[in-house]
Specification:
234 residues, mainly alpha, 79% helix, disordered C terminus, flat, 10 helices
């Protein structure tokens, strides 16, 4: 066990770890946003659109991420889509995650009691208000554990990005192993880095879940009764 290798290659490993976090964060943001949009579009009663969205989700979920990444990076130029390795990695990670997030959001949407939505409609609330005040709070509570789990899974999927020469952690680890032939030190360092990232994501997710649950279980703390009563009387 040669610990001097970590000192020698420490800056490169930290740089690769930073690229990993960047790709993961940007890819997850794209995946969450696109998955939510797909869920909303899937609620539209137009069969061609719903079939298209369902086909997209099934294809993404039914094919390995590595194949999708190769098609995007290597096959993209065939249709005029030329992306840098890091950009292709972020976009590929976002598209891959969007299919899973769309299914998570769909399950959360179906968990909303229909009576609450019907009550909001009877009060004349627009769909945007119903989505923001009725549907999203219930969805958030029911989907946070699954979302956090998917975010943790996507952290480990970033390993694949090294295949298309994204200079992330795995890429730097492979460089270190090729130059020093220290395979054990390389594997150990990679395991520690990814364990740290997954642990941070899981802890932050649990803290966010507890805060959301506490906020929704005590809504009176965030309201002002005097203004509510006066507005109701008016």
């Amino acid at each position: 066990m040669d610990f001097t290798l970590f000192i020698q290659y420490g800056p490169a490993l930290l740089r690769g770890f930073g690229v990993t976090i960047l790709c993961w964060a940007a890819g997850c943001a794209i995946g969450l946003a696109l998955g939510f949009v797909l869920m909303l579009l899937g609620r539209i009663e137009w069969k061609p659109l719903r079939w298209t969205i369902r086909a997209y989700i099934e294809i993404i979920r039914g094919t390995p991420f590595l194949i999708q990444l190769f098609l995007l990076y290597s096959g993209g130029p065939a249709i005029g889509l030329r992306l840098e390795a890091t950009t292709a990695g972020i976009l590929g990670l976002g598209l891959y995650g969007s299919a899973y997030f769309a299914e998570i959001f769909r399950a959360g949407y179906q968990a909303v009691p229909k009576g609450q939505v019907e009550a909001a409609l009877s009060l004349g609330m627009p769909y945007g208000g119903i989505l923001r005040r009725v549907i999203l709070p219930v969805m958030l509570v029911s989907t946070v554990p699954a979302i956090v789990n998917m975010l943790a899974i996507l952290t480990k999927e970033t390993v694949v990005l090294s295949i298309i020469t994204v200079p992330e952690l795995m890429y730097e680890m492979q460089t270190m192993a090729a130059e020093t032939f220290a395979s054990f030190e390389t594997i150990l360092a990679m395991a520690l880095f990814y364990w740290l990232l997954v642990e941070v994501v899981s802890r932050l997710g649990r803290r966010f879940e507890a805060r959301v649950t506490r906020f929704l279980s005590h809504p009176s703390k965030t309201t002002r009764p005097s203004k509510t009563i006066s507005s109701a009387r008016a």
